[in-house]
Amino acid sequence: MARIEIRKLRKDFGDFTAVRSSTFTVEDGEFFMLLGPSGCGKTTTLRMMAGLELPTSGEIYIDGEEVSGRPASQRDIAFVFQMFALYPHMNVRRNIAYPLVSQGMARADVRRKVQEVARILDIEDILDRPVGGLSGGDRQRVALGRAIVREPKAFFMDEPLGALDAEFRERMAGELRALHDRMGATTVYVTHDQLEAMQMGDRIVVMNHGVVEQFGAPQDIYDWPATMFVADFIGSPAMNFLHFDGAVARGACRIGLAGIHVEVPALLEGGKGRLALGVRPEHVHLDDSAPYRGEVLAVEYLGTTQIVTIETANGALKARLSSAQPVRTGETVGLAFDARTLTVFDAASGRALL
Ligand code: ATP
After folding, report:
1. Is the dihedral of CA 277, 282, 287, 293 positive or negative?
2. CATH code of residue 338
3. ipTM of the predicted structure?
4. pTM exceeds 0.90, yes or no
5. Measuring from atom 9 of ligand 1, which residue has the nearest CA?
6. Of 41, 45, 189, 305, which is the most exposed, with the fewest CB atoms less than 10 Å away?
């Protein structure tokens, strides 16, 4: 098990900065997600943590020990890639045993360990099969088996489910999480899929353009996004932004939108100029008596819920409503928001004032 601390980590490739100044801590036994869009620097961060890439500056500590200059082989970690490279000429048992055999472990011990790992992954019945004919899921389990058999301090996974189709991906995500819960080994996992990150992670780092935008538990990030980028990236449909010019004070306050006032929760900072009120689609309610009004532009039916796009004086927004609620394109509706769920952003910097 391992606690991994990252301090002001930076990586330049020539004059391009892939990772700017990342600071965060992965607690012992945590399932930790590095999340962000393509090119944001998450793979580079993971590779530095694993020892596959040297940082330009900054430090990495594993259990309090500085390891930044040490290669992967001296960090007691296992890396699981998207494309599982199994040895095609070996059967399942030999593939899993390989890391132990190459360490010179005694045959009887290797046999026992492989059996144990096969039991955990529920692949005992295929141990003597060649890997060539296996299904994608079984290949995945064999690759995981090879990673966990060494009992490393930590696992590093780079989009390990990226190549799988949606249904299977979801099942493997559940299996991976269950496996982690049984073994409790620190796991750092890269994904660009916010749902996967929310579903699997104990905590998430959200990155953009080489910068850590926020890190925290999935629900905290969802409920209290630190930036407009995070608010937009997490959640589907994304958080709505109602733009307005004005000033808000520190502390609890009311802001004016198109002639009506919305109560917002206590602000830690005041702000003025171009501001944005962030509201999640599920926190928009239709209320005939509400003075804030908009026109329904589109209705998208999703079974039990419907996504309704509404044009307001402050921009279009999406509401997630029960499908039982009758809504027609073209009608004018009154809009109400649950005050406790609102976030105010400074639109220029993108930072939340909460
Ligand atoms: P993806 O999901 O697409 O892999 P990512 O968030 O993992 O994205 P990185 O792979 O870390 O992003 O890459 C971050 C940026 O650094 C990208 O713009 C990439 O082109 C650049 N980069 C990565 N490795 C190198 C390299 N060896 N030399 C030059 N530029 C690189």
Report:
1. positive
2. 2.40.50.140
3. 0.95
4. no
5. 41
6. 305
